[in-house]
Amino acid sequence: MDELVATLTELDRDRAIRCIVLAGNERAFAAGADIGELARSSAIELYYQRRVERWDAIRSLWTPLVAAVSGFCLGGGCELAMSCDLIVASETAQFGQPETSLGIIPGAGGTQRLTRVVGKGLAMDMILSGRRLTAPEALAAGLVSRVVAREAWLAEAKRVAREIATKGPVASRLAKESVNRAYETTLQAGLEAERRALYLAFASEDAHEGLAAFIEKRDPEFKGR
């Protein structure tokens, strides 16, 4: 996780990069923590290791982050995917929070983010009973954005990322921030933040370029300024 956060942070600082895809392999996006390592750890060791804060660092990235999920996406892996901005899932994907079967609970946002996304009833079912969601179920619940054939999961995630990368980077970052605000705060506070973000976006060079390009019937050339 340290290496992942360091890499993502480095990419996030590169203004030429306008979207990032985070993927595992065909069998699994991530199947969660190393259970043997957890079993050997004390509560104080876990506290000082600050493991779960890595997910917060990922959530705070400016650059849009697409999770490409195939196969198992369980425990900390599911929490990692939820820390991304959208999830493109293979039809083989399975999502779950099985921690209570080990006598522990989700600790990297699983009880909070999952509940906000899929609702209390389904989150309780997944966390308390260990129910796994199939890709279609996750799509219906709002956990994933798109479900594609097993052979297309990574290609589709990259295609979506390329599409995002064609948009104004200042606008994309402000829009991401505003959507996250809606997810985290009251409606009135979110509306006020959205209006401030709109004015900031409108003040950018990208906004003037985008509007001019539309009027002139040409593709915009965004500079991220």
Continuous helix count: 12
Our Rg estimate from Cα atoms comes to 19 Å
The beta-strand count equals 8
Order of helices and strands: HEEHHHEEHEEHHEHEHHHH
**CATH topology category name of the largest domain:** 2-enoyl-CoA Hydratase, Chain A, domain 1
Which of globular, elongated, flat, extended, rod-shaped describes the shape?
Answer: globular
Low-confidence stretches: none
Helix content range of the residues, please? 40-55%
What structural class is derived from the secondary structure elements?
alpha/beta
Q: Report the major sheet.
A: 4 strands, parallel
CA(first)-CA(last) distance: 31 Å
Mean pLDDT reading: 89
What order do the strands of the largest sheet run in, or round the barrel if closed?
1-3-5-8
Fraction of residues in β-strands: 5-15%
CATH H level, superfamily name of the largest domain: 2-enoyl-CoA Hydratase, Chain A, domain 1
**What's the structural domain tally?**
2
Highest-level CATH class of the largest domain = Alpha Beta
Supply the CATH architecture of the largest domain: Alpha-Beta Complex
Please name the defining characteristics of this protein.
225 residues, alpha/beta, 2-enoyl-CoA Hydratase, Chain A, domain 1, Lyase 2-enoyl-coa Hydratase, Chain  A, domain 2, 4-stranded parallel β-sheet, 4-stranded mixed β-sheet, 12 helices, globular
Task: Summarize the structure in words.
- It is a single chain.
- The chain has 225 residues and is α/β, with parallel strands linked by helices.
- It folds into 2 domains: 2-165, 2-enoyl-CoA Hydratase, Chain A, domain 1; 169-215, Lyase 2-enoyl-coa Hydratase, Chain  A, domain 2, CATH 1.10.12.
- The chain has 12 helices and 8 strands.
- The chain has helices at 2-13, 35-40, 43-49, 53-59, 76-83, 110-118, 120-129, 135-141, 153-165, 169-184, 187-202, 205-215; strands at 20-23, 28-30, 65-69, 72-74, 86-90, 94-96, 133-134, 146-148.
- The strands form 2 sheets. A 4-stranded parallel sheet has the order 1-3-5-8, with helices on both faces. A 4-stranded mixed sheet has the order 2-4-6-7.
- Helix 1 runs parallel beside helix 4, helix 6 (110-118) packs across helix 7 (120-129) and helix 10 packs antiparallel against helix 11 (187-202).
- The longest helix is centred in the last third of the chain and has 16 residues, at 169-184.
- The two termini are 31 Å apart.
- The mean pLDDT is 89.
